[in-house]
Design a protein that fits this description.
Order of helices and strands of chain B: EEEHEEHEHHHEHEEE
CATH superfamily of one domain in chain B: P-loop containing nucleotide triphosphate hydrolases
Number of domains of chain A: 2
Helix content of chain A: 40-55%
Low-confidence stretches of chain B: none
Mean pLDDT of chain B: 89
CATH class of one domain in chain B: Alpha Beta
Low-confidence stretches of chain A: none
Distance between the termini of chain A: 27 Å
Strand order of the largest sheet of chain B: 6-7-8-3-9-10
Radius of gyration of chain B: 17 Å
Structural class of chain B: alpha/beta
CATH architecture of one domain in chain B: 3-Layer(aba) Sandwich
Shape of chain B: globular
Distance between the termini of chain B: 22 Å
Radius of gyration of chain A: 29 Å
Largest interface: A-B, 24 and 31 residues
Number of strands of chain A: 12
Mean pLDDT of chain A: 86
Strand content of chain B: 25-35%
Strand content of chain A: 15-25%
Helix content of chain B: 25-40%
Oligomer: heterodimer
CATH topology of one domain in chain B: Rossmann fold
Number of helices of chain A: 11
Number of strands of chain B: 10
Largest sheet of chain A: 10 strands, mixed
């Protein structure tokens, strides 16, 4: 007979309510883990989708995500000619406000040359960009269906396709358009002074500028060697995809990542204290029963088993409730809550450890209960 | 020669020390043989419960010596290393307020005492059912303690105390919560067990209605044995 389960059955309603309360707390902690992972995943979403081997940006910068980068429009031809490069594509990136049927939303506009690297790797609905002007492919987070129209820089764009999970590091949905459209948009959205300079033919305001060139290499080509070659051009800098990913997580979203990480640690600490207190209260509620068990000769392992099993069942049920809760509502969150099997399993391990550690105080108290405490009225 | 089941020699127990010391037991000598049912009476604070707790190895004496079933348990220090094992295998304890575990039904309360002593679960339940039948509460085997009457709960508690067939049965006012008739039934039962199992039964009581159920009546006052009267046969 399992006395831990028997005691739980005896106070089932109260125990389940405690599990539910604890589950809500664990749900918050689990959500934070998911949000933390989501920030990293979203920061890397675009670079992973583009699957570039080398990023070519303006010399002295670490663009185009961490810093502003500006290259002449012909940089792509130069990159294309470097040995080892299989394909290269120019891209532009800028944040803009788009007027959509749902209202004004902030988007990250990305221009690329259809047929060259830089476009979305997979579509959820619709089609990719062709040669036509004023078409966009929007990420589903923009909540734009195929056929919807978007007003950007005074021009009306038609949504021809949608993607899934392609957002900027800040969580804004990506809007893909042709390079030419994006360059014109950049010009239209630029400050009036820059627009005037550009119209007068000054170089700094030239429309034919891009933010980066992404290169895909031939199989077997060494990305570091190609990047080294590209760095010899004094107006270019080059980063391998690994360096770009490192930059995105260590620089672009570092503060958010650390902030969320710290908050998650604080939440886990608070959870640990609350779990320990709940287990302690549950144990002290059974003071007389534990004393009786000792009086009828129950060994310490029976008492330890009672406390520990209840702690683990409490943690297990609470965590199960938390997992169901978070997975049920995670799509409601404005930013990605990225939870996979690994995160859920690691968190389960942490909760299990917290339960075991949290029950130590209760076990110590339970072992100190004197048998004669069962004899009082 | 019959070995006494309980032998206490010049046993003392003092709580605290210095000016605040309280001498709960003073040089107590007591011998209880197999099959004997001994009553222990005395005013509040006379040391009855302390003596019971010392014999149950719940309280450590201050001086003296005592042995159970021929084995010296305490002689300046505990000689037995596992006191809880001693309690579960050799001593049956009946409480004033039955102290059944509220989360186990009657039969599991009794069976638990046996499983703690290493009896397989199925065997423990079978024997528990037999014991409850013997104590005439078999029909209430699956009832939770909260659903048992005072008399039923006390009989289940007695069944638990008898579960491992202990040779020493200690009872702390087991009839306090019972009416006269049920109190007599409980005492007759303890007498029956004492005879059948050749067990020593020591009962703390204030209940004069059951005094005639004891073979001996020991009176304590201020921690000392005042009288040790054997009932006329």
């Amino acid at each position: 007979m399992n006395i831990a389960l028997a005691d739980i059955r005896h106070n089932l309603g109260r125990f389940l309510l405690t599990c539910l309360g604890l589950g809500l707390l664990m749900g918050v902690a689990l959500s934070m883990v998911g949000i933390y992972q989501g920030v990293v995943a979203e920061a890397l979403a675009l670079s992973r989708s583009l699957a570039a081997d080398v990023w070519v940006v303006e010399s002295g910068t670490r663009g185009p995500f961490a810093e502003a980068s500006r290259l002449p429009g012909d940089a792509r031809e130069m990159v294309q000619r470097v040995p080892g490069v299989a394909a290269a594509g120019s891209i532009t990136l800028r944040t803009a406000e788009a007027r959509t049927p749902q209202g004004l939303i902030r988007v990250q506009v990305m221009g690329y040359e259809p047929g060259r690297p830089g476009g979305p790797s997979a579509l959820k609905t619709g089609r990719g960009l062709g040669g036509a002007r004023f078409e966009v492919v929007a990420d589903q987070r923009a909540q734009l269906a195929v056929g919807a129209t978007v007003l950007l820089g005074g021009d009306r764009y038609t949504v021809v396709g949608t993607t899934r999970g392609l957002v900027a590091s800040g969580g804004d949905p990506l809007l893909f358009m042709t390079l030419r459209d994006s360059q014109e948009l950049q010009f239209k959205l630029a400050p009036p002074a820059a627009r005037r300079a550009s119209a007068a033919g000054a170089g700094a305001g030239s429309i034919d500028s891009i933010n980066a060139v992404i290169a895909k290499l031939h199989a077997g080509a060494d990305a570091n060697a190609v990047a080294e070659t590209l760095r010899r051009w004094k107006h270019l800098a080059a980063l391998t995809d690994a360096e770009q990913s490192e930059l995105l997580t260590r620089s672009v979203v570092n503060r958010a990542r650390v902030q969320l990480g710290m908050f998650t640690v604080v939440l886990l600490f608070v959870s640990a204290v609350i779990i320990a207190l709940i287990i302690y209260t549950m144990t002290m509620d059974k003071l007389r029963e534990i004393a009786t068990l000792k009086l009828i000769g129950a060994p310490d392992r029976t008492i330890v088993g009672l406390v520990l099993q209840q702690a683990l069942i409490l943690g297990g049920l609470g965590y199960a409730a938390a997992t169901v809760l978070v997975f049920s509502v995670r799509d409601v969150f404005p930013r990605a809550v990225a939870l996979g099997v690994a995160e859920v399993a690691i968190m389960a391990g942490i909760i299990g450890t917290i339960c075991v550690l949290g029950s130590l105080l209760s076990i110590r108290a339970a072992l100190r209960i004197e048998p004669q405490q069962a004899l009082g009225s | 020669m019959i070995t006494p089941l309980v032998r206490i020699e010049r046993l003392s127990k003092t709580f605290g020390s210095g000016d605040t010391a309280v001498r709960a037991l003073v040089d107590v000598d007591l011998v209880i043989g197999p099959g004997e049912v001994v009553g222990l009476k005395g005013p509040s604070g006379s040391g009855k419960s302390t003596l019971l707790n010392v014999i149950a190895c719940i309280l450590e004496p201050t001086s003296g010596r005592f042995s159970l079933n021929g084995d010296t348990i305490w002689d300046g220090r505990y000689l037995a290393t596992d006191l809880r094992r001693l309690r579960r295998e050799r001593i049956g304890f009946i409480f004033q307020f039955h102290n059944l575990l509220p989360f186990l039904n009657a039969i599991d309360n009794v069976a638990l005492a046996m499983t703690l002593a290493g009896v397989p679960a199925a065997e423990a339940r079978r024997r528990a059912a037999d014991l409850l039948d013997y104590l005439q509460v078999g029909k209430r085997a699956t009832a939770m303690p909260a659903r048992l009457s005072g008399g039923e709960a006390q009989r289940v508690a007695i069944a638990r105390a008898l579960a491992n067939r202990p040779r020493i049965i200690l009872a702390d006012e087991p009839t306090a919560a019972l009416d006269s008739e049920r109190a007599r039934v409980v005492m007759d039962l303890l007498r029956h067990v004492a005879r059948e199992q050749e067990a020593a039964v020591l009962v703390v009581t204030h209940d004069e209605k059951i005094f005639d159920r004891f073979d001996r009546m020991v009176s304590l006052r201020d921690g000392r044995i005042e009288d040790d009267l054997r009932r006329a046969a």
